[in-house]
Design a protein that fits this description.
18% strand; Arc Repressor Mutant, subunit A; alpha+beta; single chain; elongated; 11 helices; 3-stranded antiparallel beta sheet; Endonuclease, Chain A; 259 residues
């Protein structure tokens, strides 16, 4: 049977398999249980390669070897293979995160930090502005900025974004409270009253209703992240500004609405 090239491409992409693995797994799924010869004929993969490919699929959890003569292979149900793949990816991700977390303790990491701190031309952050592209990049910088707050944090954001990012903001707010940092949160007044109540209760801070659709994050009237694309835009863009002058200007503009 001629296999559809589009299906092979999608399986290769979604399951992280190579071309031969995708072809062999499709062939095996068609038979549920098949010999190497049958798989080679259906998949159009050279028989000399089918052995290695089946061994690889077995290790990845897509096939099971049935002992006997001739040896046959059984296809693993796609839903089971998918769940196993998810577990493997999560396990690998946890391992990678643990490895990255331990990098800070290595002497090599401390050495490169010293190189940065002792650079010939140190960066003057008072004159530094950065363009941030992508939601993940924006929130990575926002987390770092909020963690450095000493006196006050002002957040103006859409209520839907606050709801989606509760797991992000809640632990940060807890740390800020422990440092006695004042937290001021405001959102567009168009949100539902019940939503305001729920988000405010979970975050542990009151949420002021204002008539602004923008997104601002200001720390100590010195640093700010200003979104320059609307919420849910395909390309999330923002500016990171280390400018007391600009931050104080924005703060003074917001004060009548926030206090």
């Amino acid at each position: 049977m001629i296999q559809r090239q589009e299906l092979i491409k999608k399986i290769k992409y979604f399951f992280g398999l190579n071309i031969y693995e995708s072809k062999v797994w499709i062939a095996l799924l068609q038979k549920n249980i098949a010999s190497v010869g049958e798989i080679a004929e259906l998949s159009e993969v050279p028989r000399s390669r089918v052995y290695d490919v089946l061994e690889s699929l077995e290790k990845k959890g897509f096939a099971i070897a049935k002992v006997g003569k001739p040896m046959k292979y059984i296809a693993v149900k796609p839903t089971i293979a998918l769940e196993r793949l998810k577990r493997n990816i999560l396990k690998e991700a946890e391992s990678n995160v643990k490895t990255l977390s331990n990098l800070k303790n290595l002497p090599e990491f401390k050495e490169i930090e010293q190189l940065y701190e002792k650079g010939v031309q140190p960066i003057d952050y008072r004159e530094l502005s950065l363009a941030l592209r992508g939601t993940q990049n924006i929130y990575t910088n926002l987390k770092e900025m909020l963690e450095q707050a000493k006196k006050e944090v002002i957040i103006v954001s859409g209520l839907s974004e606050l709801k989606k990012k509760i797991s992000f903001f809640k632990p940060l707010f807890q740390k800020l409270k422990e440092k006695n940092v004042r937290i001021v949160v405001a959102s567009n007044a168009d949100g539902k009253e019940s939503d305001f109540f729920v988000v405010s209760k979970v975050l542990g801070v009151p949420i002021k209703k204002i008539k602004i659709n923008g997104r601002f994050f200001i720390v100590d009237s010195e640093k700010a992240i200003i979104a320059i694309t609307p919420e849910n835009d395909e390309e999330d863009l923002a500016l990171l500004l280390h400018s007391p002058y600009f931050s104080q200007t924005i703060t003074s503009f917001l004060v009548p609405m926030l206090y």
